[in-house]
Amino acid sequence: MPEREVALAALMVRIARADGSYDDNEHQRIVQVLALRDGLTTPEAEALCAQAETLEAKAADTVRFTRALKEMIPLDDRVGVIEALWQVAMADGHRGADEDAQIRLAASLLGVNDRDSALARRRVRARLG
């Protein structure tokens, strides 16, 4: 898998695990987002998610993932990364302070301002109902 896809998947896993709970809804949302964003089959997205879970567990910080994404994704497209993170954060039906903090950190490291992140969150909330 390209490094960009692995970095995005690992960052989504990091967001899902931020509140101390990583449930099946979050896992399935990550698989769904990967499949849609990257045109992967469900088995490919599952394999990528499994790889990302292992990578995220070993990573000391978030910078490793955001640096890779920042180098490979134009600024205009990074808001889509933030939307993907909000989708994962909202997959279990509630947002936790730890998830919010991780998304704020990721947005800052990716060069996405608070306003654009808030707009991304609103778009995701509107889609999810």
How do the helices and strands line up, and which of them pair or pack?
Elements: H1 3-17, H2 24-38, H3 42-58, H4 63-72, H5 75-89, H6 97-110, H7 114-128
Summarize the structure.
By secondary structure, the protein is mainly alpha-helical.
Describe the structure in your own words:
- It is a single chain.
- 78% of the residues lie in helices and 0% in strands.
- The longest helix has 17 residues, at 42-58.
- The protein has helices spanning 3-17, 24-38, 42-58, 63-72, 75-89, 97-110, 114-128.
- It has seven helices and no strands.
- The chain is mainly α and 129 residues long.
- Helix 1 crosses helix 3.
Number of DSSP helical runs:
7
Order of helices and strands: HHHHHHH
Strand content: under 5%
Q: What is the CA-based Rg, rounded?
A: 13 Å
Tally of strands: 0
Q: What structural category do the secondary elements indicate?
A: mainly alpha
User: Runs with pLDDT <50, length 5+?
Assistant: none
Helix content: over 70%
Strand count, sense and barrel status of the largest sheet are:
none
Taken from the alpha-carbon principal axes, the silhouette is globular
Head-to-tail CA distance between termini = 32 Å
- What does the average pLDDT come to? 92
